[in-house]
């Protein structure tokens, strides 16, 4: 009974970041992989893995694994439904009570793309249903997200990428967080690139600075799924 009450208290306390949370002054890092692989004319599969640290090379914060099925309505519009698994350690320092928050997440999103001069814009609208579990104490929360992203090609090889993303809670406090991002990207091949950037992750009472290292690999696999003619 005492264990369950303690876990329940921590579940709701850890979901809200506050200014006294340790680690706010540290420069952390997110190491990420993203893939979008077309399997037919209209369908593609999204894969994603993120390993997040409180510090640049140590002190585990979060593991995020996400996948989804994309339906390409047109080259400028994509609808997606998917699932994510998130394992979060909310404690910057190791302690006697060290239980990770496990989240199973279902999401639906819609992406619109457009071009203004040389600037490539992407608007992403996402809804999330979050199933949270802290040592057997469970909660369900809902969230909406909107991200506007702008990409500026510099040459055929180099580009700049910027985005701002707002998180809105659909229960309790309305404001969840805001992520402001800027990066330099390098096109490795026609369907792959790397990005190195900076993320300012703002909560209601705390701000975290994070380096980001991302690999994008988007080969077209649709030819593997075509039926061979007899």
Q: What would you say this structure looks like, in words?
A:
- The chain has 230 residues and is mainly β.
- The chain has a single domain (2-15, 28-220), classed as Autotransporter beta-domain (Lipocalin).
- 6% of the residues lie in helices and 64% in strands.
- The protein has 1 helix and 11 strands.
- It has one helix spanning 2-14; strands spanning 27-38, 43-53, 60-74, 77-88, 101-116, 119-134, 137-153, 158-169, 175-189, 192-202, 207-217.
- The chain has an 11-stranded mixed barrel with strand order 1-2-3-4-5-6-7-8-9-10-11.
- The longest helix is centred in the first third of the chain and has 13 residues, at 2-14.
- Keywords: Signal.
- Pfam families: DUF2490.
- Residues 1-19 form the signal peptide.
- This is DUF2490 domain-containing protein.
- InterPro entries: DUF2490.
Short overview:
With 230 residues, the protein is mainly β. The protein has one helix and eleven strands.
Which key terms come to mind for this protein?
eleven-stranded mixed beta barrel, DUF2490 domain-containing protein, disordered N terminus, mainly beta, Lipocalin, 230 residues, 64% strand, 11 strands, signal
């Amino acid at each position: 009974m005492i264990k369950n009450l303690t876990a329940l208290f921590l579940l709701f306390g850890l979901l809200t970041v506050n200014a006294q949370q340790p680690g706010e002054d540290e420069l952390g890092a997110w190491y990420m992989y993203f893939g979008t692989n077309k399997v037919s004319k209209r369908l593609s599969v999204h894969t994603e893995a993120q390993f997040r640290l409180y510090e640049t090379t140590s002190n585990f914060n979060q593991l995020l694994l996400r996948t989804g099925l994309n339906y390409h309505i047109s080259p400028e519009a994509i609808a997606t439904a998917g699932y994510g698994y998130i394992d979060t350690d909310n404690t910057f320092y190791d302690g006697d009570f060290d239980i990770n928050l496990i989240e199973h997440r279902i999401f639906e999103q819609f992406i619109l793309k457009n071009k203004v001069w040389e600037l490539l814009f992407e608007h992403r609208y996402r809804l999330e249903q979050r199933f949270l579990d802290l040592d057997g104490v469970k909660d369900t929360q809902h969230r909406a997200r909107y991200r506007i992203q702008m990409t500026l090609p510099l040459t055929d090889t180099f580009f700049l990428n910027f985005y701002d993303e707002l998180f809105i809670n659909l229960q309790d406090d309305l404001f969840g967080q805001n992520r402001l991002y800027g990066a330099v990207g390098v096109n490795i091949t026609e369907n792959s690139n790397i990005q190195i950037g900076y993320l300012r992750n703002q909560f209601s009472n705390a701000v975290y600075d994070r380096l980001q290292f991302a690999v994008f690999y988007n080969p077209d696999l649709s030819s593997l799924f075509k039926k061979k003619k007899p």
